Amino acid sequence: MKMNILGLALIILSWTVCTPAQAEDVEYYAVLMEGAKVGYATHSRIVAEGRVTTTETTALTINRLGVPVSLKTKETCVETVRGEPISFVVEQDIGMGTMKTEGTVGKDGTVKVRTSGAGVVQESGFAWPRGAVMAEGLRLIEIERGLKEGTSYDVNMFSPGAMAAISSRVRVGAKQDVDLLGRVVTLTKVETTMSMPGAGEMTTIGFVDEELRTLKTIMPMAGMNVEMVACAKEFALGNNQVLEIVDKMFLASPEPIENIRSAKSITYYLKPVGETGNFTIPSGDNQRVERLEDGSVKVVVEPVSAPAGAEFPYKGTDKEIASAIRPSRFLQSDDAKIISLAKRATGDAKDAAEAARSIETFVAGYVKNISFSVGYASASEVAASRRGDCTEFAVLCAAMCRSAGVPARVVVGVAYVEDFAGREGFGGHAWTEAFIGGKWVGFDSAFKASGRGGFDAGHIALAMGDGEPADFFNIATTLGRFRIEKVVVNREK
After folding, report:
1. What is the pLDDT of residue 396?
2. Do 410 and 450 share a domain, yes or no?
3. Residue 264 is part of which domain span?
4. pTM, entire model
């Protein structure tokens, strides 16, 4: 499974650590996945000169087909003692280097953002989400609400790492004995349900002491349990265990699908599993989704063709489509290297379809080093290194399309493979969609590079966007909640 999910896990874990009572304490946590220690987290809070500085660091290492992948993020929030946002800094090393994002919140609510990484500097801005709080603001709300059983309240949490505000409902439960790596402590259970429009919900369970320190967190993530447990510094920073995640994020197919490229469409019947059957599958131009009476979901994937004659660069007035042509933190379409590559790829292309197909083919040949050691790289990093796997193909393809004037986005989901390290079924995958002639058309440079041919009906989309970690919220909340019960292949010509 591609590592953008774990990048999102790092970000969500940083939201779940309540601030310690003492001003300069550093709290240490062990991060566990499926019971194996895979990393650590730290938390500190410093009060000085009327400002509160809260810093969260999270790091983990896992294996993908025997190849270790390390990811680390450091997030610093600066707020007034009243919890009003002043600034934030995020350093994410989830690709081939560190991406640094600095934000300053003006008195008028305008946020100025500067992002640097891979030799590229971007400046942007946005309006601070109404009512959103960061770490200190959240701490003050928690103090005000207290830990009385049955207390429930809503909070809008802004995550600098995700560059998004997440609506959350907090519910205070009963006290119970909790095992903290062999040490049993009586703590209060607190459930936090995070939601994003059209992307489903994720509920984390935290256990807090009387000083509102979260000593243990349990979070479902892509069909696995991720835990963070307070512990001694020596244990947190000590050796990690080896956890292979590919099998845990692979979906079995009810039957082999032969010659998938010849399928005009494929209908998938998805059956809920586990305690909750609430999962969201997005509809779009390439797939239609229907929830059936028994709670299962019917997904019909029928790839649309790119119509000839669509002009580029895009000159339409649709705001959503126009936003898919602008550079973003992970799709740096204004990077000089990417601009140059896009010009080489498109040459004298006569329309948007020809330009996008040329870029798809170019990227398939450009990324030479297929590496499972890359966590999640930006388009600029891929352009410079020429290595990675499916996500790196997808972000570079999308960024080059945008640079050429073709609106594009990154899509993540699952795709059928006949043989992936001896596995047959559906594995996590990423590809690109380009907006051509009024339709979002699928392109898959990674599959084209492998000889598969590109995008086909073997792809089920779970989320899409600018490549930001928050864009993948739905895949993190959906994987593990369903199995593929039946497939029906339509080969009509």
Report:
1. 97
2. yes
3. 260-490
4. 0.89
Phi, psi of 255, rounded to the nearest 5 degrees: -160, 155
Q: What is the pLDDT of residue 399?
A: 98
CA distance 264 to 490: 6
pLDDT of the residue at 493? 61
Which tokens hold the place of 227? 């835990």
Pairing of strands 297-301, 287-291: antiparallel
CA distance 290 to 47: 52
Other Cβ atoms closer than 10 A to 385: 19
Upstream peptide bond of 256 is cis (omega within 30 degrees of 0):
no
Any domain includes 220: yes
Rounded to whole angstroms, the Cα distance separating 485 from 297 reads 10
How many distinct helices (H) and strands (E) make up the chain? 10, 25
Confidence at residue 443, expressed as pLDDT on a 0 to 100 scale: 98
Strands 439-443 and 423-436, by their bridges, are: antiparallel
DSSP notation for 447-466: HHHHTS-S--TTEEEEEEES
Q: Closest by alpha carbon to 90, among 105, 106, 108, 72?
A: 72
Same-domain check for residues 230 and 312: no
Q: In whole angstroms, what separates CA 379 from the centre of its chain?
A: 15
User: 284 CB contacts (<8 Å, ≥6 apart)?
Assistant: 433, 440, 461, 464
* Separation of first and last alpha carbons in the chain: 33
CATH of the domain at 58: 2.40.360
Separation between Cα atoms, residue 73 and residue 61, nearest integer Å: 12
Establish if 251 belongs to a structural domain. no
Is residue 444 included in any domain, yes or no? yes
- The secondary element (H helix, E strand) that includes residue 148 is none
Distance of CA 19 to the CA centre of its chain: 25
463, 411 contact by CB (below 8 A): yes
Task: Please report whether residue 14 resides in a domain.
Answer: yes
Reduced to 3 states (helix: H, G, I; strand: E, B; else coil), residue 380 is helix
- Among the candidates 189, 208, 243, a domain finishes at 243
CB atoms within 10 A of CB 381: 25
* Distance of alpha carbon 176 from alpha carbon 206, whole angstroms: 12
The pLDDT of residue 23 is: 43
Single out the residue in 243, 272, 296 at which a domain terminates.
243
CA 247 – CA 209 distance, rounded (Å): 36
Q: Which residues of the chain have pLDDT under 50?
A: 1-4, 17-23
In sequence order, the 6+-apart residues with CB closer than 8 A to the CB of 187 are: 175, 176, 178, 207, 208, 209, 215, 216
Contact status, residue 380 vs residue 337, Cβ threshold 8 Å? yes
Strand pairing of 287-291 and 183-195?
Answer: unpaired
Number of separate domains in the chain: 2
